[in-house]
Amino acid sequence: MTFTLPPLDFRSDTVTRPDDTMRAAMASAEVGDNVLERDPTVQALEERAAHVLGMPAALWVPSGTMANLIALSLHLQRGDRFLATRGAHVLVNELGSAAWLAGGMPEILEHDGGPGRPSPDALAAAIGQPGPYFTLRTSLLCLENTHNAAGGAVTPPDEHAQLLSVAKEAGLTVHLDGARLWQAAVALEVPPAALTVGVDTVSACFSKGLGAPVGSVVAGSVAFVERARRMRQMLGGGVRQGGVLAAACLVALDRVPELAESHENARRLAEGLTEHGWATNTPDTNIVLAEVPDIPTALAWLDSLGIRAVPMAGRVRFVTHRDLSATDVEETLRRIKSGAR
């Protein structure tokens, strides 16, 4: 008889599942056709999300990828260059949609200002000076907070402000990929709106660590959201009785403060891995990146111990979340210690 260890899933905080409270909210949600008219629960979520994010208006969309694609599609003219940090989600994880559908040409910014962010000087140099009409035009800066590939790294408000100042001085539009902005706000102990100051648009996700099964928002000016609603329809995001899903997102918003627990679990995991000889980042939030000699071998070994992880930026990524307790973290470290003997 083969004994199988119960799985401990660190692949992503997107594996979190709706609990009974969230399912009950979904089942009892007031709904309407969100294409022909406004679904009342979707509308309530959009209004609340806009307020929390410090933006005039917000639009519910099925995914963070769609939220970012809508923003880039409306900000870019075909052939425009846009700037984004190395490993940014819009560059690596969205399957080239920024170029294929939004028509933009990406330029990579290195993390010389700290994990997940460029320095103001490097940003200014990348933007350059306006040239004649036949030269490449740079029109958009994409920031990411927290930065996934940099280990959930946080950009503090003062550094955010410096980058915004450089971009705006050069006339750039700024989009913030805030898929895990809630994590950054909790880590910094500031309201989410403190991390969106000066941006033209921001996306934020409800399915990362908060238990919602689906859903993001893209927020900006009222005029932007009016255009974004049409773009969402073009991309197939015209969900009908979306209140069933928006209800889960409203419950998720109530749970943002609970993300602090996953941050503490990530710190404990990183400390424990270091004690066992692994080289890891010091996590700002809920993502731990571990250096290993051979990623496929390491992932297979972890899987044999019932520990699920994924590759990220040349390292092994562990993501803590609400469905993994402090006890689960200790059990993970116990398995790694036992398996290494």
Can you walk me through this structure?
This protein has 341 residues and is of the alpha/beta class. It is built from 13 helices and 13 strands. It has helices spanning 20-27, 40-53, 64-75, 89-92, 97-100, 120-127, 157-169, 181-188, 222-234, 243-254, 259-275, 295-304, 326-339; strands at 8-9, 57-61, 81-85, 105-109, 138-144, 173-178, 201-205, 216-220, 279-280, 287-291, 307-308, 310-312, 315-319. α3 (64-75) crosses α9. The longest helix is centred in the C-terminal third of the chain and has 17 residues, at 259-275. It starts with 7 loop residues before the first strand and ends with a helix. 48% of the residues are buried. The model has no long low-confidence stretch (mean pLDDT 95).
Give the amount of beta strand, in percent.
Answer: 15-25%
Average per-residue pLDDT, rounded, comes to 95
Strand order of the largest sheet: 2-8-7-6-5-3-4
Number of strands: 13
Main beta-sheet strand count, sense and barrel state: 7 strands, mixed
The total of helices stands at 13
* Uncertain runs: none
Structural class: alpha/beta
Large-scale geometry: globular
Relative helix content: 40-55%
CA radius of gyration: 20 Å
- End-to-end distance, in Å? 23 Å
Looking at how many chains there are and whether they match, the oligomeric state comes to single chain
Secondary-structure element pattern, one letter each? EHHEHEHHEHEHEHEEHHHEEHEEEH
